[in-house]
Design brief:
The structure holds two protein chains of two kinds.
Chain A (H helix, E strand, L loop, with lengths): L1 H6 L1 H20 L8 H33 L3 H35 L11 E8 L7 E4 L12 E4 L2 E9 L4 E5 L6 E6 L5 E6 L8 E7 L9 E4 L11 E8 L7 E8 L8 E4 L32
Antiparallel strand pairs in A: 1-2, 1-12, 2-5, 3-4, 3-12, 4-5, 6-7, 6-9, 7-8, 8-11, 9-10, 10-11
Chain B lengths: L1 H23 L8 H12 L2 H17 L7 H17 L7 H26 L6 H6 L1 H26 L9
The chains are: A alpha+beta, B mainly alpha.
Chain lengths: 302, 168
């Protein structure tokens, strides 16, 4: 027996190398496993290398663009001044609205719970395989970024943090095939689920589980519903590009053109976790020694 | 030693690929640098060393592609074994031949990745979209293989110790 093992040692080892990951894949499926300590070390190393490459490429690009930018700087300056004037006017208008909002909040005794600070992060890399949609950002647990936090841009929702270590985090994009989030039609308030399709060429999202009787129309703005425990309500997701018309059944589907182009992400904003409030318990005297009612925590998207 | 250098090179190239793809804004395609390295291993390395290196390279790709699933680790070793079998049938001596060999490997790699992902989660794979980006991906992998060939040969030669008494 031992001589047989010795004779076929190489073959057995190669078969082991082949079957071990295959067994992992079959048992764990496409969701995989949480990173082990060794995985985290390797990822931290690759993250540092990526940062160095990104820094070097950015440096080279900024030297070139700095030179090129000087050529049209006067015309651009004039344009920016005009834009600045318009923005200042808009900011004043928003100050008015904010003040009014504050007054209304105090009137209805709204408790403004500040849960944490937003973190600005830079995208330093993308996934090297063709089957996933995620980007790596240069902020991690040491900056307050943890798994489950929503990631947005000024245009709308980009994704959520799937894993984070001290100096970086991986963000699953809304176009990834495993991504789901609760959404709402801004016009009619109809709720549905937006699912990533994993498509690299057409970056559309799939609209699922919209009630057939709901009023949905093409070009309707789609926003987050705030029901998934990850994304706050009211963030822009995209616009309805197609709505399925069905004569029967309970639900209907459609397509959403995302507001954010995941291929052009550069800087993003990581939002603090949202707390989903549980319904208040019935108002009756708690028994002696009973604990305080719990609050809902953030979870993963549906 | 050769295995360690190969794996470090794979890590460097994967990190570089991740940055370049992001800077170029490539949405449709990726550059499979790992396939080029595994193809080279299939041509030059012995079975056990090559399989172990392919395992580590696949593990790195798996780790940097979202959650660790084991798929790319399995495909790395599988591609190495397949490449080893094909290598006995073809004569790869030039950079262009190596590029073609790596491109063939990339086609197999992507098709198997899509197939296995589809088998485990049918609706969660944008198979059509991935396959639509395949031609450009294969072409870019071929270009990368052509560019990497001299470097890989140098590394391979540098780590070989000449046997005593061999006529050179």
């Amino acid at each position: 027996m031992l001589s047989l093992i010795k004779r076929y040692r190489d073959l057995i080892l190669v078969a082991g190398l082949l079957l071990l990951p295959f067994f992992t894949f079959v048992t764990r499926g496409p969701n995989g496993r949480e990173p082990y300590l060794v995985d985290r070390w390797v990822l931290a190393l690759s993250s540092h290398v990526q940062r160095a490459f990104a820094w070097a490429l950015d440096g080279t690009a900024s030297v070139w663009t700095g030179y090129a930018a000087l050529r049209g700087v006067e015309a651009e300056n004039r344009g920016l001044r005009a834009e600045n004037q318009a923005l200042r006017a808009k900011a004043m208008e928003q100050d008015e609205l904010r003040a009014e909002n504050e007054r209304l909040r105090s009137l209805v005794a709204y408790a403004d719970k500040k849960q944490g600070q937003e973190v600005v992060a830079k995208v330093v890399g993308v996934d090297p395989s063709s089957t996933r949609h995620f980007v790596r950002i240069d902020r991690g647990e040491s900056d307050g970024v943890t798994a489950g936090m929503a990631v947005i841009t000024p245009d709308g929702v980009a994704g959520y943090v799937e894993r984070a270590t001290s100096g970086w985090a991986d963000v699953i994009l809304i176009t990834d095939a495993t991504h789901r989030m609760g959404v709402r039609d801004e016009r009619t308030r109809a709720r549905a689920i937006a699912a990533g399709t994993g498509g690299k060429a057409d970056l559309e999202l799939r609209l699922d589980y919209a009630l057939r009787k709901d009023d949905l129309a093409e070009n309707d703005a789609i926003i987050t519903s705030g029901t998934d425990g990850v994304y706050p309500a009211g963030l822009r997701v995209g616009t309805l590009s197609r709505v399925e018309q069905r004569g029967s059944g309970m639900f209907r589907a459609g397509s959403i053109h995302p507001a954010v182009d995941p291929t052009k992400l550069e800087e993003v904003l990581v939002l603090p976790k949202v707390a989903v409030p549980l319904p208040a318990p019935p108002a009756k005297e708690p028994p002696q020694g009973a604990g305080a009612p719990g609050t809902g925590g953030a979870g993963v998207p549906p | 030693m050769k295995m360690l250098v190969t794996c470090l090179l794979a890590l460097l190239l994967l990190s570089l690929e991740a940055v370049i793809v992001q800077k170029l804004g490539l949405s449709v395609t990726r550059i499979d640098v790992t396939v080029a390295i595994i193809a080279f291993l299939a041509l030059r390395a012995n079975t056990l060393e090559g399989a172990a290196s392919s395992f580590v390279i696949g593990y790195l790709l798996d780790l940097t592609s979202g959650r660790y699933t084991g798929l790319y680790t399995f495909l790395g070793v599988f591609l190495f074994i397949l490449g080893k079998m094909v290598a006995s049938l073809v004569d790869v001596r030039s950079g262009v031949m190596f590029a073609l060999y790596a491109m063939g490997g990339d086609v197999v790699h992507v098709l198997l990745a899509v197939l296995f992902s589809w088998l485990t989660a049918k609706e969660a794979v944008g198979a059509a979209a991935i396959l639509s980006g395949l031609p450009l991906q294969v072409l870019l992998t071929g270009v990368a293989a052509l560019a990497l060939y001299p470097l890989l040969r140098r590394l391979d030669r540098g780590s070989d110790r000449p046997q005593l008494g061999t006529l050179r």
